[in-house]
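A quick aside before the break. I want you to see a complete sequence-to-structure record at least once, exactly as it would be stored in a machine-readable document. Don't worry about memorizing anything.
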Amino acid sequence: MTTRFDRRTALAGAAGGVGALSREVAGRAGSSPPAGGDDGSNDRRARLRDRIARMIVSPVTGTSLSDAEAARLAALRPGGVILVGDNIGADGDIAPFTAAIRAAIPDRPPLLYVDQEGGVVRRIKADGEPDQPAMGAMPVDEVAAVATRRSELVLGYGFDVNCAPVADVAFSADSFMVARSFGDDPDNVADRVEATITAMSAAGVIGATKHFPGHGATSVDSHEALPTVGASYGEWLAGEAIPFKRAIAAETPMVMLGHLMYPEWPEWGDTPATFNPEAYRVLREDLGYDGVIITDDLGMGALTDWPPLDVIDRAVDCGVDLLLIVVQRAPVEEVLDHLVDRVLDGSLDESRIDDSLARIDRLVATRNQRAGRPQG
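That is the input. The structure line, written in tokens, reads:
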């Protein structure tokens, strides 16, 4: 039988060990201003670094939190931390791991992210619920019940964000998403996306509907290469857009951008959705989405034609709110310092950061309110 963990108990258990160490490390980090400049410029740099770090979802090493990783997180202070397959050891180690990560930044614990779609993308192996293809054949009320149980599982292991559901429509048997999608009918997929997001939010889990504008009409794996979808804008509106529209109507907390090309759209150009101004415009203006936009992993093979910091710059300039980094083509610390430098040299307006932080704050406050959690 799999042992389940109470979230509050796990947090309290880790706070005594790792928390003491991380508070000491955080204190040392805070007492050593960056070299160069006067006190005023150092203070501004430290303030900017702390603010911009909230836009970063960082990876972590190991299946438990080492002293070195606790110190790194205490110095970096990312807004989120993601656990992937390599971070998952024994079932009983997961909740203490997530609790220790929170305790490493006790004054502003990061949100904990996981990919728990079910089926082939399932980090928590204790999840015996149906996968999305099976859910595609289930009545909508049963889909909602599955999403509720999966959300309770995710919460029980200490996670805040589940990077799900997949809203991609697997139009053919050779779609890369065929084993992860609710199916091949946009309206059927949309019904189940809406039910899943609604259930997740009610349970207190932050969902990230993915992979906008849609990864279903291609057989190419964006982990390896850049997929191209040949749909015109009108064809997209009549197909892949439908589940995303329904997710937005259901107030999805996040939308995850895919590393995808839609070159038949009139204003698309030659860049992937991750940092494509037209993709952001369509999501914000045509679909009316005002929530948090997060990238897919910025270290995936689809983006290797662009220098890593160029990818970061373009995505931030387009209006992304959260930068998800699993594979570090550039170290997370370098990404953060680069963005701080851009604000300081005037090439990035701090109001761009303000906008994203306001959306992130609203997301967390809404989640807490729905879940009956204290604000602040």
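Two observations worth writing down. Residues 7-370 form a domain with the TIM Barrel fold (CATH 3.20.20.300). The two ends are 37 Å apart (CA to CA). We'll return to this after the break.
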